[in-house]
Amino acid sequence: MFVKRLVSLLALVVIASLLLAACGGAAQPAPAPAPAATEAPAAVEPAATEAPAATEAPAATEAPAEAPTAAPEATLTAEEQAVIASAAAAEEVKAAEAAGKTPIRWFVGVGTGTSPDQVAIQEEVVKDFNASQDKIQLVLEIVPYDAGRDTLATQIASGAGPDIVGPVGWGGSNAFYGQWLDLTEQIAASGFDVSVFDPALVDSFQTEEGQVGLPFAVFPSAVYFVPEYFDEVGLEYPPQNYGDKYVLDGEEVDWTWDTFTEVAKRLTIDVNGFNATEEGFDPTQIVQVGYSPQWQTHPNYFGVFHAGSDYIVEGKEKGSFSVNLPEGWKEAVQWAYDGMYGEQPFMATGPMSNSPEFGNGNLFNMGKAAMAVTPLWYTCCLADFVNAGLEFQAGVLPTDAAGQVHGRVDADTFRIWKGTKHPAEAFAVLSYLITTGGDKLLPVYGALPAIPEKQDAFFAKKSEQYPFVTPETWEVFKAGLSYPDAPSAEQWMPNWNEAFARGDTLWDLLQNTPPSQLKFDAEWQKYLDDLNVIFNK
């Protein structure tokens, strides 16, 4: 049985490769493989980045209903399913060309889009598009998430890459840095109206390579908070309009990270009811923390929220790359470390956070944090929170000392491979997917539309899910779209997967090691030194 299975798989690989090449993919020189494109997918917390669980959840790996080349009793691996999907797409491309149409392959598998309910809607959108005109044949190629990056890397390296890839977040896109088409020419030629989007969102897709994407599925960030916990200690709620003051001890103050920190300390409560600012507070017996950086614990995330976005890589080629993390990012991570192990803590340490009592890391959902800063996708999964009889609202993000807001917007979109032979037709499809097609796709992706006039329907569904949330809270999230991280906190770095994972390793060390056993400055320098090595491998 093993030999039969292996022979069948090898046959499929050969067939798929030949079909893709025959469809014209390998007729031109292949672009240089993207940095890190062939690396294994990075381990990502339920937050993304790339986009986290809600936008980048691993896909189901069920076998197709019919798998004629495999034994009926066999369970297909993700790699086998990917081969079958690619071969089927190649056959559809050949049929479209024979019918005199321009085939455009849409590759799904490096982000969301692989669950059965999503597959069904994507197939429906493909039918809608193909029925809307008679020049282009849109071909859907869905591979399991677990095989997505390797499959795409192989196709691109062979010159047989798909025309369109997505939806995919910043992290998934940057694993294939250098492979995306600059859309500037196509936007101008087609007359596509980018003014339907917030200009800040459009600009966030502008990189040194050009306009490599357009807004589609967006997840702005905000300060989630539990009103009940604020009422219990007599604190005002966080502001819900950018620019508003906060009232602390009867005086109006700016809603800065310093103010946020003071509020978080007063909301950190021990078993005896003392808060972190009071004499008698016992940091070993905390029952509620004031703040949880819910799934936003990478150094890049802390840095962006506190100090703002910046390009963090210098150099143009391997051997000359160097890390350029702003000093403000170091200060932001130091702030978080002090928040766990300082004299007046306001965050959970690693042992505390990872305990079952604190939700195994999901503190806010467990009702163990009074505030959390995280993107909108977190509203997908607050069942434990609601079942506990709790309610949440959202406030605006704090500012830095200079009054500047530094937000973070997780964003999924569609990319066009720069090796496409049909850029105009590919852009026509992309335009359809992010507008008309998006009306069906975005609800099943669980994403907020980037087009403002289409956002009310999304929040209406959220209000059904959380009837206690006020309209003002949903407006907070809308306002957050004006503060994207550009460049993204998940921006490209050489050897992206390994470099990003090194940041996760640093945070794991910090949250689990008290100052008596760790020198922060030394560990930060080691982090920078390691990044310089990783960048130039």
Outline of the structure:
Helix content is 41%, strand content 13%. The protein has helices at 2-22, 53-56, 78-98, 116-132, 145-157, 170-174, 184-190, 199-204, 227-233, 257-266, 299-307, 327-341, 350-353, 383-387, 423-434, 438-445, 455-465, 471-480, 496-512, 520-535, and strands at residues 102-108, 136-142, 164-168, 206-207, 210-211, 217-225, 246-248, 251-253, 269-270, 286-292, 313-314, 322-323, 369-375, 393-395, 409-416, 448-449.
Structural features:
537 residues, alpha+beta, ten-stranded mixed beta sheet, two-stranded antiparallel sheet, 20 helices, 16 strands, globular, disordered N terminus
Describe the structure.
This protein is of the alpha+beta class and 537 residues long. The longest helix has 21 residues. Helix 1 runs parallel beside helix 3, helix 11 packs across helix 12 and helix 19 packs antiparallel against helix 20.
List the helices and strands and how they pair.
Blueprint: H1 2-22, H2 53-56, H3 78-98, E1 102-108, H4 116-132, E2 136-142, H5 145-157, E3 164-168, H6 170-174, H7 184-190, H8 199-204, E4 206-207, E5 210-211, E6 217-225, H9 227-233, E7 246-248, E8 251-253, H10 257-266, E9 269-270, E10 286-292, H11 299-307, E11 313-314, E12 322-323, H12 327-341, H13 350-353, E13 369-375, H14 383-387, E14 393-395, E15 409-416, H15 423-434, H16 438-445, E16 448-449, H17 455-465, H18 471-480, H19 496-512, H20 520-535
Parallel strand pairs: 1-2, 1-3, 10-13
Antiparallel strand pairs: 3-15, 4-5, 6-13, 6-14, 6-15, 6-16, 7-8, 9-10, 11-12
Helix pairs in contact: 1-3, 3-5, 4-16, 11-12, 19-20
